[in-house]
Amino acid sequence: MSNQYIQVGSTVVMHFTIKLSDNSVAETTKKTTPARFTLTEESLQDPVERALVGKQAGEKVRVELSPEQGYGPVLDANIHTVELGRFPQRVELQAGDIYSFDKPNGESLTGVVMSIEDGIVRVDFNHPLAGKTLLCEMEILEVNAPEVLASEATLCD
Fold it and tell me: Is 0.90 topped by the overall pTM?
């Protein structure tokens, strides 16, 4: 275990768990590969990454995120209606179903079916964690010192 403290430029390896306010787990790396990232000046805008500064391997950090700090609020503009006839006939839709729509550029967009009434399907395209308060629990496994770039190094004769 290194004694490096997390700072801008550090590469961090950690496990994280994101929980909802009812303590249910939304996402975790505990049973998979730990997350690895490099802390940048830009990432310090993120309250989770900002909370890691000054910590070292072996420490645990907990951060509560408001909906605005997490995935944002639920936006009415992301709830759309689609005629039932635009879905393939073989698809039997029910409220709560997750459906993937193909966009003209070839990407897909996933939404949750909210309701089906009078041939109209209401689909929510907000992120599933939008509007939710989240608790992010992190266990720092490894901290690697920032690498000095050749352009930042001082050359001595």
Answer: no
Cβ atoms 83, 119 nearer than 8 A: yes
> What span, in angstroms and rounded, lies between the C-alpha atoms of 148 and 156?
15
Verify that 136 and 119 share a domain, yes or no. Answer: no
Mean pLDDT of 20-29: 95
Q: State the pLDDT at residue 138.
A: 97
Domain of residue 22 covers 11-71+130-144
Does residue 1 fall inside a structural domain?
Answer: no
Tally of structural domains, the chain: 2
> Letter for the amino acid at 139?
E
pLDDT value at residue 151: 46
Task: Give, as one character, the DSSP assignment of residue 52.
Answer: H
Amino acid at 34: P
Q: What is the DSSP letter of 4?
A: P
